[in-house]
């Protein structure tokens, strides 16, 4: 495989081209396409097939900083992404020596942050923060092995074991990763690749979903055999891969593959008990199949509510109605999901974690009534604690643990609202809406999205347009109040504080003060109290009832 760098304005940037005596005579998305295109006019000649790399502008800045004779290679995922014409947020560089020293040199020149990532392996990281707040990670690592070839052969998968010489603009591909890229195959670099680092099991599944590739048969077998070694991997590395899977495409399919390869008992063992647990109507699936369906529908719902989605192009009536009823909140939902609780993890992945665990305690809470109906009392409350324990074992922040707990603990409330509207034609009162967001806060938006996915997965093909419309009405009412009437219903301005209330009523500090203040707020949300005088009169009347 050959290559050549190209300027951003080049019409061939990011393409394979056929070059003959210095002139480009054809192009294509793959080497085979470029070759076939050239044979239409030059069928008797053998052109050179090269890839026209479109290098990020940051590469030139880095090269300008380094000594002119410095041997340096772009390696791994960055090269893979360039060959796939995909943007890459991370750039990895391999060098014969001085990884930390050169990383610090580059960081100083770019006015970027520097971290000595691994002093034993002489690896340094540069973090470039861009104007929009996004970050680019530049890792400078010394060869793991005697030379570059040994380094590449020791990597995880062949598609990630390609290097690009930034000096002479050649591609080094000892494991034929380019061939696997074209075949859309994920193949381990060596028989020991998965056993040496079992976290690669998760990475293979994630990358197969991200690129729409398949995992080669022998590699799948190696993954299955190495699964029981996941216990020796640090919780942080496992956490990072799990959350990358959950934020990416086809997370439901990824989790299913983890199940098939018998990885779950060693990674997320509490999920295993959900398999085969039957549920009564309106559920159409067992608990585990339902959970995977929720992940799938949640992905579809968020996709359909993204900014720029054209609802008219869908031939699915449920998706079309979703866009018509809730499309006005696309931007607000996007902003909500873009507001992370941790700089290294997206809120979307946290929501999908909550979806994965929302029914985790159903096996332990299952009861069967005399009528034959299956019930799962308190599965929401208990499930919130189970999920919290798993998150704590992954060392995530307290804010993230609290968000997931809130989502799981309250996930049945949407169904209660919809049930009342469907059976009694009653929409949620202003006081009920206030209480919902009082208890859930910003997680209320996540609960709306999860609730919609939950009902689609619950009723599956038996879901009627009428029932779906009921859920969309509940979702619209909640979102409308949250986004358009926050001061009226969600968070009314405080008319009184505790000190003033105690002074006016002549009472001492006690739990009663808090209860009175909360009752005032609820009645403000309901539209029954609008002034301080009304609040005081209401408090006096309530106090007589308490006393």
Report on this model:
- The longest helix is centred in the C-terminal third of the chain and has 20 residues, at 465-484.
- The chain is elongated, with a radius of gyration of 29 Å.
- The protein contains 27 helices and 15 strands.
- A hairpin with a 4-residue loop joins β7 and β8.
- The strands form four sheets. It has a seven-stranded mixed sheet with strand order 7-8-9-6-5-10-11. It has a four-stranded mixed sheet with strand order 1-4-2-3.
- The protein has 547 residues and is an alpha+beta fold.
- α8 runs parallel beside α10, α14 (317-326) packs parallel to α23 (465-484) and α20 packs across α23.
Essential attributes:
547 residues, alpha+beta, Beta Polymerase, domain 2, Hydrophobic Seed Protein, 5 domains, 7-stranded mixed β-sheet, 4-stranded mixed β-sheet, 27 helices, 15 strands, 12% strand, elongated
Summarize the structure.
The chain is built from 27 helices and 15 strands. By secondary structure, it is of the alpha+beta class.
Secondary-structure blueprint:
Layout (H helix, E strand, L loop, with lengths): L1 E4 L10 E5 L2 E6 L2 H9 L8 E6 L3 H9 L7 E3 L1 H7 L6 E6 L3 H12 L2 E6 L4 E7 L5 E8 L5 H6 L9 E3 L5 E2 L4 H6 L2 E2 L6 H4 L3 H12 L2 E2 L1 H10 L8 H13 L3 H10 L3 H4 L19 H18 L12 H10 L3 H8 L9 H11 L4 H4 E3 L5 E3 L2 H15 L4 H12 L3 H12 L5 H11 L2 H17 L5 H20 L1 H5 L7 H8 L5 H15 L6 H15 L1
Parallel strand pairs: 1-4, 6-9, 12-13
Antiparallel strand pairs: 2-3, 2-4, 5-6, 5-10, 7-8, 8-9, 10-11, 14-15
């Amino acid at each position: 495989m050959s290559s050549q760098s190209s300027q951003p304005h080049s019409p061939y940037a990011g393409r394979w081209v056929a070059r003959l005596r210095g002139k480009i005579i054809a192009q294509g998305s793959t080497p085979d396409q470029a070759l076939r295109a050239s044979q239409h006019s030059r069928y008797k000649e053998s052109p050179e097939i090269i890839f026209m790399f479109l290098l990020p502008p940051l590469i030139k800045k880095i090269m300008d900083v380094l000594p002119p004779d410095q041997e340096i290679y772009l390696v791994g995922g960055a090269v893979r992404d360039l060959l796939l014409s995909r943007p890459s947020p991370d750039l990895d560089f391999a060098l014969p020596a001085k990884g930390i020293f050169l990383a610090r040199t580059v960081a100083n020149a770019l006015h970027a942050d520097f971290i000595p990532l691994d002093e034993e392996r002489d690896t340094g990281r540069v973090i470039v923060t861009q104007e929009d707040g996004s970050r680019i990670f530049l890792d400078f690592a010394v060869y793991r092995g005697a030379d570059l070839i040994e380094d590449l052969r020791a990597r995880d998968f062949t598609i990630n074991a390609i290097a690009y010489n930034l000096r002479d603009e050649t591609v080094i591909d000892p494991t034929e990763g380019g061939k696997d890229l074209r075949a859309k195959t994920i193949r381990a670099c060596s028989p020991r690749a998965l056993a040496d680092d079992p976290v690669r099991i998760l990475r293979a599944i994630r990358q197969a979903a991200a690129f729409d590739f398949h995992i080669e048969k022998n590699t799948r077998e190696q993954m299955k055999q190495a699964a029981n070694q996941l216990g020796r991997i640090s919780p942080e590395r496992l956490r990072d891969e799990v959350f990358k899977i959950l934020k990416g495409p086809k997370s439901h399919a990824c989790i299913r593959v983890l199940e098939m390869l018998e990885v779950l008992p060693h990674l997320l063992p509490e999920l295993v008990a959900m398999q085969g647990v039957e549920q009564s109507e309106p559920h159409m699936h067992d608990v585990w199949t339902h959970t995977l369906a929720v992940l799938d529908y949640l992905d579809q719902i968020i996709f359909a509510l993204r900014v720029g989605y054209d609802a008219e192009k869908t031939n699915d009536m449920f998706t079309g109605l979703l866009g018509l009823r809730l499309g006005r909140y696309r931007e607000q939902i996007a902003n909500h999901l873009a507001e992370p609780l941790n700089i290294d993890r997206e809120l979307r992945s946290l929501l999908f974690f909550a979806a994965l665990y929302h029914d985790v305690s159903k096996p332990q809470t299952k009861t069967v009534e005399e009528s034959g109906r299956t019930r799962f009392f308190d599965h929401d409350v208990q499930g919130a604690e189970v999920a919290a324990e798993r998150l704590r074992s992954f060392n995530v922040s307290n804010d993230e643990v609290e968000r997931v707990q809130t989502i799981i603990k309250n996930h049945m409330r949407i169904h209660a609202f919809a049930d009342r509207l469907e059976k009694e034609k009653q929409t949620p009162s202003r006081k009920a809406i206030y209480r919902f967001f009082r208890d859930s806060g910003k997680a209320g938006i996540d609960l709306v999205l999860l609730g919609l996915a939950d009902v689609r997965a619950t009723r599956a093909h038996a879901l009627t347009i009428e029932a779906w419309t009921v859920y969309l009405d509940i979702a619209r009412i909640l979102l409308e109040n949250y986004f358009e009437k926050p001061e009226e219903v969600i968070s009314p301005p405080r008319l009184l504080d505790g000190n003033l209330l105690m002074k006016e009523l002549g009472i001492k500090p006690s739990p009663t003060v808090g209860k009175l203040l909360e009752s005032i707020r609820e009645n403000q949300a309901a539209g029954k109290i609008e002034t301080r005088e009304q609040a005081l009169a209401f408090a006096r009347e309530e106090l007589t009832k308490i006393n």
